[in-house]
Amino acid sequence: MTDFFEGIDPIRYEGPGSENDLAFRHYNPDEVVMGKPMKDHLRFAVAYWHSFAWEGGDPFGGQTFLRPWHPQDSMETARIKADAAFEMFRILGVPFFCWHDADIRPEGENFAESKARLDEMIDYFGVKMEDTGVGLLWGTANMFSHRRWMSGAATNPDPDVFAYAGATVKACLDATHRLGGQNYVLWGGREGYETLLNTDLKRERQQAGRFLQMVVDYKERIGFQGTILIEPKPQEPSKHQYDYDVATVYGFLRDFDLTDHVKLNIEQGHAILAGHSFEHELALAASLGVLGSIDMNRNDYQSGWDTDQFPNNTPEVALAYYEILKAGGFTTGGTNFDAKLRRQSLDPEDLIAAHVGGMDVCAAGLKAAAAMLEDGKLEALRAERYAGWDSEDAQALLHHATLEQCEECVIERDIRPEPRSGKQERLENLVNRYL
Ligand code: 3MF
Ligand code: MG
After folding, report:
1. Where do the domains of the chain lie, and which CATH numbers do they carry?
2. Which residues form a coiled coil (predicted)?
3. Is any ligand 1 atom within 6 A of the Cβ of residue 295?
4. Which pTM was predicted?
């Protein structure tokens, strides 16, 4: 075990009036919201990479954190890191965690050694998960950090890298399956380009589509019951990333006949980078039937990159959970905190406090979203705005009419459409009543 979090007690719910930094003010795990406990709506997960693998470096400076598991170059320190991680899961009471292969074991001399190390850590996790009851929300492969991935993984111009990517995803999907993972995620940080001058877009799209079909085929062969999730992001580290946003990924899934086999893991910060709101991406994914899970964080609105900060804006989070609840809530998905401390937040307690705050913001947002949905006013006003389409004539117009018939009808009935107020400000005022 580790004493990294020594002296920090399990976090308890103390209510909105609590002044205790290390207590929940809104996240009351067993409190029933819309018929089920809050914890089963939110399904919180800790991101191993940000909380335990990241050493505090940024493009202009190196390590700031000094942890008992540093240097992260041996299986011994990999186990110490795992001990600290499960200690934090226990303190926070989170039901899940997520990992990349590279987060949990040091890279080996070759693929075989890397795989053996991964399997050793999966055995170690298995015992801890059994002991603690913490589940795996999703596993994934880091196919973006090592230099072999610099020109892509599945979309790489070198077929050897494509093969290495296939072997890597197989190992990580097997590991996720072995741990009873609820999902498997693919974020293509290098599946894109730095310059069109050396890029064959058609070829790379074909490779990416074929690769995803191979992943789905394998998932079915091993009987993995979790959901395969693509995580959209428009750029960073690539100049342009192919899985740009929900709409782009959906078109890609359609092209390769995968819309029934793959859903999306949607990240707040990535939605913003793509020029959308988080709730836009969630609402669109829900309308297309591909809403799977979320990476919860926030970006700094003054910086044009993915700052992966913990969420602290309840109104924004409420609109996100409104779309999730309206879509029926998570099934295998959940709320993964793809969020990291600022590199100056050095203390173990900072890691705990960051998650406590993030969990509380999500819980407050969930409760506001549930109140909005149960109250029904917003949906009633939305339905009223489209009521004109409910008539038989309107449905016949939509499903059977021709343009000639439109013209005939408009002239015969001398139709002169009269615009009606969209009531946006009143709707925004209504939302604020729940916050
Ligand atoms: C990058 C990300 C990634 C993905 C992770 C899982 C490192 O902006 O969000 O986090 O979430 O690779 O797909
Ligand atoms: Mg993410």
Report:
1. 32-375 (3.20.20.150), 390-432 (no CATH)
2. none
3. yes
4. 0.97
